[in-house]
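Bench notes, afternoon.
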Amino acid sequence: MKVVTGRTFPRGLGHDFAGVVEAVGPGVSRLVVGDEVLGEASIKASGAFAEMVLAEEKGVVKKPSNLSYEEAAALPTVGLTAFQAMAKKGKLQSGQVVFIHGCLGGVGRSAVQIALARGASVGGSCRATAAQDAHDLGIDPIVEFDFDPTVLSRRFDLVLDTADTLPIDAAKKMLKPGGRIISIHPTPANIARSALPGPCSVLIARPVTGDLEEVARAAGRGTLRVPIVRTVPLTEAIAALTEHERNGTPKGGKLIITTE
């Protein structure tokens, strides 16, 4: 992580944001002062937990007018990761069948909505207490995290593991011939598998302007929504983040930090 994020302290925190463009640098032509935008700061630069953030143009797109800033700020990382997993790495086609392990997390829920919008059928795993939420989202079949993969043998064109807890043998058992397994966790084991011949690959999402625009458009159409379960002002951000790390709360959606 030191290589990715940089080694010096103090450093800003926060990646996803939404707001209004206050200034643009030389060579920026796609955005102008006054544009309402959403985007993500780079992992190394970070700094989105602030009243003003510096970001590269490629990671910033115009916000749909029908989205609030809070709704827009919930989108970039999870939406971009899900879109690149489904559309780019997974090459998902209409009529295919997808299994999403961890289907109600931020990336999982986004991937479900993107897959359904592209004409795919979606199965997934979640806690038993959240099964109704998964059903309402359009997921079928729904299983718990410790499910028996034999009951889903050879049913899926694509398996997406968002939780990094799906055994690779189980994922392979669920695949149709020629199917793909994608993990969003770049662990040494997952990276090693992706370097070998076979169905496994690992996705490290990258800021691609066209992909982020697709995510924004989907949100504007109402086919992609990321739940927000708590909103706090910047003055209360440290306490809220500390609670999140210690207790895993809030659950079921995003924590949004506002500057007002």
